[in-house]
Amino acid sequence: MDVDEAQARMREIQRIMETATLFTLLPGAAAVVGGLLVFLGCGASYWLLNSLDFADIMRLSIPGRAALCLMWFAIAIASVAVNVLFTARLAARQQIALNPRPAQVAMFSMTPCLVVAAVLTFQFLVNWESREIRYITPVWMLLYGTGVYTAGLFSIRAPRVLGLAFLLTGIVALLYFPDYGVISAGVSFGLLHVLFGAYVLTKQRQVVTP
Amino acid sequence: MSAPMNEPIKPGDIDGVIHERARLSIVSALAVTAQLSFNELKSMLGLTDGNLSVHARTLEEAGYIVVEKSFQGRRPHTAMRLTPRGRKAFARYLETLRQIVEQGSRKGQDFP
């Protein structure tokens, strides 16, 4: 065996170990919690807007708009925090070193999509007269789905399937239900995350001994 | 067994059971997980049913992995995990690779 082959094998071993680690550390419980938080957010949005269309945010007072935006921002932060906590707990339970590289790969794959979604959200909110804010849910579904699918290319199949599900439901929501953003958010960020989390939890119980 | 640091690596120093690419992939995946199912390993490593079965059997015969067959409801379920012996063999193999790279970069030399 020459040096090049030895180095190639070491890289291959590292890649496989990272993929396997990603599988073991997929935080299914965090996805379920995140999905449930989104259900709560959708309920609160409907209560605030008295409508299923996020474009009706412009009928709210300035404090009402701020409250709605802050609530969704808080849900996003809480979901990320729960993911980090549950992943660290899974790593400790499995006695696996929390390898930062898979996490970095996932983060780098997601970041451009989420930045684009945030920029578009800002643009929608600034140009509120055009009511383009009604597209906020499909836009987030499509860009989040793209990010998850890309991150899933470095992992097992389940995240890729979740990304594809977001893309498909996002297309349907954009083309046919742009005025039902609250429901689209509940179905995608809520239900899809709960289903994904339940699937991962089931698979991990089947194949990984705690 | 891996060679001491100052001796060149010989063909016999490389563990032939682990050295095969598919078997190395199986052992690498099992090294960072408590255990994995047959289907997860198959999809993770891109192996066919037949390929994975053959290589898993070779690893099992060498005492490097344990293959546990059970039923989940009516469906058969096969899980694999690395044995302490397999973990040691994997660590030795990694050390051999490290020595090859180290010695090669020192001498600019290939190994048989």
Brief digest:
The complex is a heterodimer of chains A (210) and B (112). Chain A is mainly α. Chain A has seven helices and no strands.
Structure description:
The complex is a heterodimer of chains A (210) and B (112). With 210 residues, chain A is mainly α. Chain A contains seven helices and no strands. Chain A is elongated, with a radius of gyration of 19 Å. Chain A starts with a helix and ends with a helix. Chain B has 112 residues and is α+β, with helices and mostly antiparallel strands. Chain B is 54% helix and 16% strand. A three-stranded antiparallel beta sheet of chain B has the order 1-3-2. In chain B, a hairpin with a 2-residue loop joins strand 2 and strand 3. Chain B starts with 15 loop residues before the first helix and ends in a 5-residue tail after the last helix. The interface between A and B is medium-sized, with 26 and 32 residues.
Neighbour order of strands in the largest sheet of chain B: 1-3-2
Give the rounded overall mean pLDDT of chain A: 86
Report the end-to-end length of chain A measured between terminal Cα atoms.
38 Å
Overall structural class of chain A, as computed from helix and strand content, comes to: mainly alpha
Flag low-confidence runs of chain A.
Answer: none
Question: How much is the radius of gyration of chain B in Å?
Answer: 16 Å
Q: Which structural class should the secondary elements of chain B be placed in?
A: alpha+beta
Order of helices and strands of chain A: HHHHHHH
Sheet-strand content of chain A, in percent, reads under 5%
Q: In total, how many beta strands of chain B? A: 3
Most extensive chain interface and residues per partner: A-B, 26 and 32 residues
The low-confidence parts of chain B are none
Shape of chain A: elongated
Tell me the strand percentage band of chain B: 15-25%
Integer average pLDDT of chain B: 83
Fraction of helical residues of chain B: 40-55%
Tally of individual helices of chain B: 5
Residue share in helices of chain A? over 70%
> Using DSSP, what is the number of strands of chain A?
0
| H/E element order of chain B | HHEHHEEH
